[in-house]
Amino acid sequence: MSDVELQAINFGQYPLAGYVLHRPTLMRKFIPQEEEPEYKQFLLDPEQTFLSSLPTQFQATKLLAIQAAVSTHSLDEEYLPQLHSFLNNDREVTEMYERFSARLVEIEQTIKERNEDASLRNRCGAGIAPYELLIPSSAGPGVTGRGVPNSISN
């Protein structure tokens, strides 16, 4: 698995699953099947069945701590558009880097446009967060859901 694939998996965990009711990472019981005695109660009060299936507070706290740890950008993280320390006076290298940086800006603009397009499925509405995972620019250290770190700084 590549570094970018790992980043896509790790950095999105807390923003997408940090609210346990939104996307529980663990359920303590299955949804009752028609032949089971709990099925009638499930039909009468599906919300209570769901709530009673959620992880305990202790379980949820442990999972959130793990998600926060793998989702957090470090203070000394270097991001792709910021990787200019390798540049020297070589004109060809500088031009390639500038083309690469311009392409990252285009990608970020495309993501922004898609996030604002209400006709695209799963892009807007109540409880649907805009896509920010691996947007080239970073909002800084911490759980931002943004930025593409340089693979050697992970």
Automatic annotation (TrEMBL):
MF terms (GO), sorted A to Z: metal ion binding; oxidoreductase activity, acting on single donors with incorporation of molecular oxygen, incorporation of two atoms of oxygen
Origin superkingdom: Eukaryota
Gene3D superfamilies from the UniProt entry: Lipoxygenase-1, Domain 5 (1.20.245.10)
GO BP terms, alphabetized: lipid oxidation
Species this protein is from: Anisodus tanguticus
Keyword Cell membrane in record: no
Listed PROSITE patterns: LIPOXYGENASE_3 (PS51393)
Pfam family, one: Lipoxygenase
Protein's name in the database: Lipoxygenase domain-containing protein
UniProt entry tagged with the keyword Ligase: no
Domain Lipoxygenase: 1-154
Alphabetized UniProt keyword annotations: Dioxygenase, Metal-binding, Oxidoreductase
